[in-house]
């Protein structure tokens, strides 16, 4: 043994530091204290919970991301330094107007939905927001409670008279009230 040689390493793994990158487009949503859920391939049925501790002060000029550090509780010692994890940030649910993806009609760089009012079809340009599989958020152009055509949009024309054929063909946009999304 020689002077300065490492004999052992001590790690406090009761709280693990998890660093991950987030696209700069989400910078306004990031703040210390935000809830984090993380999954590891080593423990596929276990979700590790924590909170954002810091958000880096600089955006990487190449990747256009900001580094976020979270602390994950690890009281049972399952997590080890250097593990890869899949991270999901959680924020407060916010009201959103959501329609089925099948209701969206793209045309020449614009996006439309067909709304039924008093049995007559009206084509409306809409602004879309976030997407999830099968669902699209509408930011403008429709309001909660309006009846939106979700099937057969390729056959319907503005000004046509329609009747509701059955459940699922025409339904209120996001139900009677705005849907909560996280």
The helical percent reads under 10%
Distance between the termini: 56 Å
Separate helix tally: 0
Major beta sheet summary: 5 strands, antiparallel
The CATH topology of the largest domain, please?
A: conserved putative lor/sdh protein from methanococcus maripaludis s2 fold
Shape: elongated
pLDDT below 50 for ≥5 consecutive residues: which ranges?
A: 172-182
Strand order of the largest sheet: 1-4-3-2-5
CATH class categorisation of the largest domain: Mainly Beta
3D architecture notes:
This protein has a five-stranded antiparallel β-sheet with strand order 1-4-3-2-5, with no helix packed on it. Strands 7, 8, 9, 12 and 13 form a five-stranded antiparallel β-sheet that branches. The termini are far apart. The chain is 0% helix and 50% strand. It has two domains: 15-90, Elongation Factor Tu (Ef-tu), domain 3 (Beta Barrel); 94-181, Beta Barrel (conserved putative lor/sdh protein from methanococcus maripaludis s2 fold). By secondary structure, it is mainly β.
Question: What is the topology?
Answer:
Layout: E1 15-23, E2 35-40, E3 43-59, E4 65-73, E5 86-90, E6 94-100, E7 105-107, E8 110-117, E9 120-125, E10 127-132, E11 135-140, E12 147-149, E13 170-172, E14 179-181
Give a quick rundown of the structure.
The protein has about 180 residues and is mainly beta.
For the structure shown, list the relevant keywords.
single chain; about 180 residues; Elongation Factor Tu (Ef-tu), domain 3; conserved putative lor/sdh protein from methanococcus maripaludis s2 fold; five-stranded antiparallel β-sheet; elongated
